[in-house]
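Reopening closed ticket. The problem is back. First fold of the pair:
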Amino acid sequence: MIIDKLLEKAGLKYEDLNPSEKETLNVWMEALQKGKVNITKIKEYLTSMREAVERELTKTDLGTKQDIFLKARLRNYLLLEAFLISPEKAKEQIESAISGIVGKKVT
């Protein structure tokens, strides 16, 4: 199954996911199969997965192993989000710089 192969590459099993993560992953896989995956959908998926991990981390009955595992997953989601956002931020900075140059030439 495609989901199992993708999760295996990330060091996860479908059973490791909580119900919210499973639902999100299933929706995302449906979109993938329909050819509707784009950067926006990936960002939305990452955000929902990050939020699910954050909710799990707020529980007080976590064992040390599960706490470390969740923190590692959270860090991965944060890094992926930063990677996807970076090009947008770079573009905004360039646009801002160009606007500044144009503004200086007009005055």
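Second fold of the pair, where the issue appears:
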Amino acid sequence: MSRHDDQGRRLCTATTRKGEPCRAAANNGAIVCRMHGASAPQVKAKSARNLLEELIEPALQALEDIVQDVKQPASARVAAARDILDRTGYKPVIQVQGMPSRAQVADWIEEAEAEQT
């Protein structure tokens, strides 16, 4: 049986040393807080499996339904397909360039000044 706080978060099911229910929020996908074992590797693995079953699979199924529904506009079907690909590891490669070096900036300034004269 799970308990929830005023904000709707699932509370830890463990008890304190005094025998009172723990008031900490349970980690995502787990039934206990980090102080009561949610940091353990096996609990983390089980939490990940729980989240996969509870959240990810239904979300991907909903996206798949949109892709296969011919009544949906083409843009919605393409967006859903793109979301499925993004979430399954087929994202486009994004290259991020760092800041230019001082030498590069100096070269650009020289080129700009040369073009003005």
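Update: turned out to be a display glitch only; the data is intact. The helical segments are 41-68, 74-87, 102-116. The two ends are 79 Å apart (CA to CA). Please close again.
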